[in-house]
Amino acid sequence: MANPLFSDREVSFQLYEVHGAGDLCQLPAFADHGRETFDLFLASARKIARDVLFPAYRPMDAEPPRLEGGRVRVHPAMKEIWPRLVELGMTNATRPSEVGGQELPVLVAMFAGGYLSAANGAATAYAGLTAGAAHLVEAFGSEEVRRTFHEPMISGRWSGTMALTEPHAGSSLADVRTTATPMPAGPGRYLLRGNKVFISGGDQDFTENIVHLALGRIEGAPAGIKGISLFAVPRLRPEDGRLVDNDCSSAGVFHKMGWRGIPSIALNFGERGDCVGWVVGTPHQGLGHMFQMMNEARLMVGMNGVATASAAYHESLEYARTRPQGRPLAARDPRTPQIPIVEHADVRRMLLKQKAIVEGGLSLLAECARLADLVRHGPEEDRERRRMLLDLLTPVGKSFPAEAGFVSNSLAVQIHGGYGYTAEYLPEAWLRDQKLNSIHEGTTGIQSLDLLGRKVVAGGGDALRALAAEFAAVEATNEERAGLRAALEKIAATTMELAQRGLAGDRDGMLAHSVDYLDAFSVLVISWQWAKMAAAARRGLERDRASADFYRGKIAAARWFFANELPRVSTLCDICLTDASFVEARPEWF
Ligand SMILES: Cc1cc2nc3c(=O)[nH]c(=O)nc-3n(C[C@H](O)[C@H](O)[C@H](O)COP(=O)(O)OP(=O)(O)OC[C@H]3O[C@@H](n4cnc5c(N)ncnc54)[C@H](O)[C@@H]3O)c2cc1C
């Protein structure tokens, strides 16, 4: 097929020339691996993505799941896809061998996820959710919980979900109301009752069982987030060697604009008073435990954003190279042949912007994934600094690919002209898919509050200082270095001013422009990634003339980003410091 969806050359450049995937093998945890094993894993992911997942993408989008007789039926293609994802290792790739994992770096597993998500994000999400749920059980579950739920999930016999959202508690998880009553049957078991909404993969018909990792409140627990506990709630519960109905009912399937290959359902626990949940971890600390899965999922959402934008970028690139329309500006004679639209300056601008977003976003996710590997397996003395950087970058890694990715997907439609607006061409479907990424796993608004209200101000600005040190280590050109330094200084001064407003008790004055702040911060961080890629490209050009076009394209995209995007940081910072009187606009004024 002409569209690679996710470029092999780009993957190899980012992994080995920019983000040092090979160096990770020097860590004891990855000593059994080498570039050969990484490449084998990635080649298998690529093959499944292109041969199995992508052919099912359109049919799954056209025939979304439906509720029949109280059960959700998904597209039959999932019966073929699921075992392939499990066999590849997408439920256990990064876990240690003691628990049946392949001990691969998060960096490598994440790029494999990129191939799969670009081909069929909805199908890939079932595996991501199951891996995250199994990891929660592994990290926090009692011996009984691990014995009961872990192996069935990583072996793919059962799938997993995250069941957080309730009709009145979406962004505000502190308001979760699902109740849990201790059971006399055994410590750690509770009877659950409550209503969840939007639960992805909450019901389907291709695994024997489904385990919901659900948030609830044990009777008598304090209000707010300090009273939330985490439970494993299976659809069928093991009892006397059998699986029996556990009173989790599918109350409805949402009809969605995108991600139509995976159901998002309304799920009721305990309508008959017979829904058993096993507490996972420490009672009342469930939200803290859940953050492990949420942070993993945020980066997976970021990768889905990049992958969805990547598929559309390559589609529009191919279209632009082959669609003849119009003539050069200087051509006066209408009898001269039309030129492919890629020759027009504005089409090149759109392609360059797509390239800058896709590859810049991918590089940021690689940075985050490598940090996740080093936090777990790197030298002890550097783990805290890396954890701080990962925490700082996670809201950007989630929201930049979602927001800029949507712009990029929209450009793919634009490049296709009128055809792009029709359902006959793929960019329309990818644009619908991309919209979800700024909503689920914490909306962009919530990510911005996390960044400005918590992450940048934590430790009196330690994380920002750590980031500045990372910038200084890049072999940037003088121009890039000056641009990065000026933007960082502007962000640092803005952060300090906003933090002072917060300290003075003016939370609105501090946070009213948090999304603009996130935007500015994202541009800065992506510029840093482009400086890193440009440096690697300059080295590559000296070494490998056969790849000269690839490297020149990198340098051109970096130059474009620095010239067209980095200047926005200053204006956005000024906006962040304007008065926040719009917050006082009364609802009736709108
Ligand atoms: C297709 C799909 C799949 C999903 N999958 C899952 C899943 O598997 N599991 C699960 O648990 N949930 C899932 N969700 C739920 C998702 O996480 C929530 O929709 C999301 O967190 C937003 O919650 P909400 O819809 O209630 O919107 P609200 O919280 O009502 O937000 C509405 C708007 O108000 C803004 N807002 C809210 N609070 C604030 C605030 N304090 N400050 C500033 N702005 C604010 C938001 O940014 C948003 O723009 C899914 C949702 C969708 C659409």
Please supply descriptive tags for the structure shown above.
single chain, 55% helix, binds flavin-adenine dinucleotide, globular, alpha+beta, five-stranded mixed beta barrel, Butyryl-CoA Dehydrogenase, subunit A, domain 2, Butyryl-Coa Dehydrogenase, subunit A, domain 1, two-stranded antiparallel sheet, 590 residues
Detail the topology: elements first, then pairings.
Elements: H1 8-18, H2 35-62, E1 66-68, E2 71-73, H3 77-88, H4 106-140, H5 143-154, E3 158-163, E4 179-182, E5 189-200, E6 209-218, E7 228-234, E8 236-239, E9 242-245, E10 248-253, E11 264-269, E12 276-279, H6 286-322, H7 345-377, H8 383-415, H9 417-420, H10 426-435, H11 444-455, H12 462-472, H13 478-503, H14 507-511, H15 514-543, H16 548-564, H17 568-577
Parallel strand pairs: 3-6, 4-6
Antiparallel strand pairs: 1-2, 4-5, 5-11, 5-12, 6-7, 7-12, 8-9, 10-11
The structure holds flavin-adenine dinucleotide.
The site of flavin-adenine dinucleotide has 20 residues, from strand 3, strand 5 and helix 11.
Task: Please summarize what this structure is.
Strand 1 (66-68) and strand 2 form a beta hairpin. This protein is globular.
Please, could you describe this protein's structure?
- The chain is of the alpha+beta class and 590 residues long.
- It is built from 17 helices and twelve strands.
- Among the domains are: 8-149, Acyl-CoA dehydrogenase/oxidase, N-terminal domain (Butyryl-Coa Dehydrogenase, subunit A, domain 1, Orthogonal Bundle); 158-284, Butyryl-CoA Dehydrogenase, subunit A, domain 2 (Beta Barrel), CATH 2.40.110.20; 443-579.
- Strands 4-5-12-7-6 form a five-stranded mixed barrel. Strands 1-2 form a two-stranded antiparallel sheet.
- It is globular, with a radius of gyration of 24 Å.
- It starts with 7 loop residues before the first helix and ends in a 13-residue tail after the last helix.
- Bound molecules: flavin-adenine dinucleotide.
